[in-house]
Amino acid sequence: MDPALQRRPDLPPPVGSMASKLNWLRAGVLGANDGIVSTSALMVGVAGAGTSAAGVLTAGVAALVAGAFSMAVGEYVSVSSQRDSERSAIRREQQELIDNPEGQIDQLAHMFEVRGLSPATAHTAALELTEKDPLRAHLSVEYNLDPDELNNPWSAAIASALAFSIGSLIPLLAALVAPSAWMPWPIVVATVLALLVTGLVSARIGASGKRIAMFRVLLGGVVALAATWFIGSLFHTPVH
Ligand SMILES: [Zn+2]
After folding, report:
1. Which of 107, 175, 177, 223 has the fewest CB atoms within 10 Å of its CB?
2. How far apart are CA 71 and CA 161, in angstroms?
3. Which DSSP symbol is given to 117?
4. Which residues have C-beta within 8 Å of that of residue 73, sequence separation ≥ 6?
């Protein structure tokens, strides 16, 4: 990309559909990260206890399924409650526009004044926006909400379950294709490589320094793997 077109870190976050695309991407990377770290940590922990390769794979598949469902349910609940409050804001604004249309123009004008427009310009802007689409104007100014872009809890749930599953597949495939005598190293190597990629993507989205973002993500993953390996090796009673 042309460096002049890249977002400067000191600029406010982009608005509208650009922001929602970035949010989706951010959620996808987070979900994939979760899948990578939790599945590989579980597999490494089970491997640390001396479990057979088949047992490690079974634990990995269980981690994928359990994690994907738990992500989906969590996302469904959170997006549903967000949508409920957005819908009630829409109803409230609709009612206010019916009850007190004049007062709503003043309210809009006031909010523009607070944001730096002169009283006359603020009033003109409020009038013109009210003529065009009063509900949309109020929702956008008061709640930064676009009534056509309410999140769907089902698509959010499916997307996060998918992102988690894709992340989970990385340590699973590594354990599947590598010789079982090498355990847990194939899982560790696959995890580190995958986290380098998600760290790089996070850095690009967040406009933060690439190295520090990758370092954070990697450190988190490596600590998780080391901790579960240690705990697993304490037990060292193979679960056949
Ligand atoms: Zn209003």
Report:
1. 177
2. 6
3. -
4. 157
Q: How far is the CA of 22 from the centre of ligand 1 (A)?
A: 28
**130-139, pLDDT tens digit by residue?**
999 999 999 9
Q: Determine contact, residues 40/220, Cβ cutoff 8 Å.
A: no
Ligand 1 centroid, distance to 85 Cα (angstroms)? 15
Ligand 1 centre to CA of 82 (Å) is 19
pLDDT in tens, 152-211: 899 989 999 999 999 999 999 999 998 888 888 999 999 999 998 988 888 887 766 777
Quote the distance between the C-alpha of residue 179 and its chain's center.
34
Angle, in degrees to the nearest 10, between helices 153-177 and 17-48: 40
Whole-number Å distance, alpha carbon 112 to ligand 1 midpoint, is 12
The pTM of the full predicted model, rounded to 2 decimals, is 0.77
Q: Are 79 and 156 in contact (CB under 8 A)?
A: yes
